[in-house]
TrEMBL record:
Ranges for region Disordered: 1-38, 178-198, 255-316, 390-425
Naturally occurring in which organism (per UniProt): Temnothorax curvispinosus
Compositionally biased residues, Acidic residues: 297-307, 392-406
Protein name from the UniProt record: Golgi resident protein GCP60
Residue ranges occupied by any ACB domain in the UniProt entry: 54-145
Residues forming coiled coils: none
Gene Ontology CC annotation, any one: Golgi membrane
Record's keyword terms, sorted: Acetylation
InterPro entries: Acyl-CoA-binding_protein (IPR000582), Acyl-CoA-binding_sf (IPR035984), FERM/acyl-CoA-bd_prot_sf (IPR014352), GOLD_dom (IPR009038), GOLD_dom_sf (IPR036598), Golgi-PI4KB_interaction (IPR052269)
GO MF annotation, one: fatty-acyl-CoA binding
Start and end residues of each GOLD domain: 326-478
C-alpha cells in the first residue's frame, strides 16, 4: 500500500506539470525516456491501484465524476480541462488531426481542450486512466472514501460468493453420499430378495409334487383350493428352512464363544498357578500351607482344563462319478445304503482302529441334498465295528442315559434295585459342523488324522425336510502309518 501511495504521489506531481497553454515537442517526449528507450511514465505506474484493476477503478472514477461534478465536487476550469484531456487520451489515443474533432472559429473551450489533450503527448491509455484517477483523487478526497467503500462491498460479495459456492459443494457432496447410500441399500435389498427367491424357488421345485399329492388328497376335484394349500405349505416350508439355517449359525457361534471362554479360563488358571508357585519360593516358613494351596489349585485345574489334545482340521473335497459310486456301494455291501427318513438324523459311529492313523469317508445321495457333519467322541472304543443309529433329531441323541445302580452295601429296597444314577457322558469335539451338501451332484469325501482313541460320529441330517426321505450311499475306511493321501 505504501508503494502504491508513492506511485500515486509521483503521478500527481507529473499531472501538475501539465500545461494547457504549451504543447510538448519531440524533444520533451524524448526527454521522458532514458538511455534504454524505456518510458519513465510507464515504469512509474502500477497496474493496480488501491486493490483494483486500473480499468475497474477508472470506471468508478468516471461514474463518480459524472454524478458528483457540480454537487459534491467543484473544480476549476483548468482542472476540468485536464480531466477531459485524460478521457480523450483513453478513448482516442494521441491527439492527431485525424481523431481530433473539428473546431469552430469561436469555440474557445474546444480549443483549450485540444491543447490540454495535445499536452499529454504519447502516454498510453493505461497511463491516461491512471492520470485521471490520481488527479480526481487529489482534487476530491471524497473519491478515495467511495473507492474504499466499493472495495469493501466487492470483497464482501466475493466472500459471500465463496461461502455460497462452498455451501453448494457441501450440499452436493451430502446429496451424492445420500444417493450412494440409497443405491447401496437398494442393491443390498435386491440382492437379498434375489437370494430369497432363488432359495424359495429351489425349495418349491423339490417339494411341489409331494405338496401337490397332499393337496389333492385334502381337496379332491378342487384345483383352486389345492393351489392355495400348496402355496401355504411352500411358504411354511421356506420359513422353517430359514429358521433351521439361523439355528445352525447360532450353534456355531455359541461353540466358538465357548471355545474362547474355555481358553480364557485356562489362561487365568495358569497365571494363578504361577503366582502360587512364586509365593512358595519367596516364603520357606509356610511350606505346608503353600503345598495345600497348590493342591487346591491343581484340583480346580483338573475339573475345568480340557484333558484331551486339540483337534486338527479335517480335509474335504468332492469328485465326479456319483452313479458309478452308488453302483459300487450296492455291489460291495448293502449295509452301506441307508434310507434317511424325513425329519430324521442318522449317526454312523466309526471307532478308531488300533492299526490306523487316519479316517476316510465318502458319500452320495439319490436326487436331493443332505446335511453332513463329523464329531469325535473321546471314549475308549469297546469294539472296532461300525454301527448306525437313527434318531428323529439331534436333541434325541443328547438325552440323559441312566443305568441301574447296584450297591452291595446298601442292598435293595423292597426287592428292587436302588434308584438309577446318571452315567458320565464322554466329551465330544466338533470336527466338521453340519451343513447341507449337494451330494446328489458330486461325491463328498474327506479325511481326518486320528487325534487319539475315540469314536468318530458321522452325522447325516435330514431333520429339515418335512416330506422327503433321502437314500444315502456311504463308505468309511482307515489308513495305516506311512500312507500318503492324494485328494485328486
Amino acid at each position: 500500500m505504501a508503494a502504491a501511495e508513492e506511485d500515486v504521489s509521483t503521478l500527481g506531481e507529473r499531472i501538475d506539470e501539465l500545461s494547457i497553454s504549451a504543447t510538448e515537442d519531440d524533444e520533451t517526449t524524448a526527454a521522458r525516456t532514458d538511455g534504454n528507450d524505456v518510458d519513465v511514465t510507464t515504469r512509474s505506474c502500477e497496474p493496480r491501484l488501491w486493490g483494483f484493476e486500473t480499468r475497474e477503478l477508472y470506471k468508478l472514477a468516471i461514474n463518480f465524476y459524472k454524478e458528483k461534478e457540480g454537487k459534491a465536487v467543484h473544480l476549476s476550469y483548468e482542472d476540468k480541462l485536464k480531466l477531459v484531456a485524460f478521457t480523450q487520451q483513453v478513448t482516442h489515443g494521441k491527439c492527431t488531426a485525424e481523431n481530433a474533432p473539428p473546431l469552430g472559429v469561436l469555440d474557445m473551450i474546444g480549443r483549450d481542450r485540444r491543447l490540454a489533450w495535445q499536452n499529454l503527448g504519447y502516454i498510453s491509455k493505461e497511463q491516461a486512466m491512471e492520470g485521471f484517477i490520481v488527479l480526481l483523487d487529489k482534487l476530491c478526497p471524497l473519491f478515495r472514501t467511495v473507492v474504499e467503500a466499493q472495495k469493501r462491498d466487492f470483497e464482501e460479495k466475493q466472500r459471500l460468493k465463496r461461502e455460497e459456492e462452498a455451501k453448494k459443494l457441501e450440499e452436493e457432496k451430502k446429496l451424492k453420499e445420500l444417493e450412494e447410500e440409497r443405491k447401496k441399500q437398494e442393491e443390498e435389498r435386491l440382492k437379498e430378495e434375489t437370494q430369497r427367491r432363488q432359495i424359495q424357488d429351489a425349495l418349491n421345485q423339490q417339494t411341489y409334487y409331494q405338496f401337490k399329492i397332499y393337496a389333492e388328497q385334502q381337496y379332491p376335484g378342487n384345483p383352486e383350493q389345492q393351489g392355495v394349500l400348496i402355496r401355504q405349505l411352500q411358504e411354511q416350508h421356506y420359513h422353517q428352512y430359514m429358521q433351521q439355517l439361523h439355528q445352525n449359525q447360532l450353534v456355531i457361534e455359541d461353540q466358538n464363544e465357548e471355545e474362547e471362554e474355555e481358553k480364557e479360563k485356562t489362561k487365568k488358571k495358569s497365571v494363578q498357578s504361577e503366582n502360587v508357585t512364586c509365593k512358595n519360593d519367596d516364603n520357606d516358613d509356610d511350606v505346608n500351607n503353600k503345598d495345600d494351596t497348590n493342591e487346591n489349585v491343581n484340583d480346580e485345574d483338573s475339573d475345568e482344563v480340557e484333558d484331551w489334545p486339540p483337534i486338527t482340521p479335517a480335509e474335504m473335497w468332492t469328485r465326479k462319478g456319483v452313479e458309478e459310486f452308488k453302483q459300487t456301494i450296492k455291489r460291495e455291501t448293502g449295509d452301506a445304503v441307508i434310507k434317511v427318513g424325513h425329519g430324521e438324523t442318522v449317526t454312523v459311529r466309526v471307532p478308531t482302529h488300533e492299526d490306523g492313523t487316519c479316517l476316510f469317508w465318502e458319500f452320495a445321495t439319490d436326487g436331493y441334498d443332505i446335511g453332513f457333519g463329523v464329531y469325535f467322541e473321546w471314549s475308549k472304543p469297546e469294539t472296532n465295528q461300525v454301527s448306525v443309529y437313527i434318531s428323529e433329531s439331534e436333541e434325541d441323541e443328547d438325552e440323559e442315559e441312566y443305568e441301574p445302580r447296584e450297591d452291595l452295601e446298601s442292598g435293595s429296597v423292597n426287592g428292587n434295585a436302588r434308584p438309577e444314577r446318571r452315567t458320565t457322558t464322554p466329551p465330544i469335539s466338533v470336527i466338521v459342523p453340519i451343513y447341507r451338501r449337494d451330494s446328489q451332484e458330486e461325491i463328498y469325501a474327506g479325511s481326518h488324522q486320528y487325534p487319539g482313541e475315540g469314536v468318530y460320529l458321522l452325522k447325516f441330517d435330514n431333520s429339515y425336510s418335512l416330506w422327503r426321505s433321502k437314500t444315502l450311499y456311504y463308505r468309511v475306511y482307515y489308513t495305516r502309518q506311512g500312507f500318503k493321501n492324494n485328494n485328486n
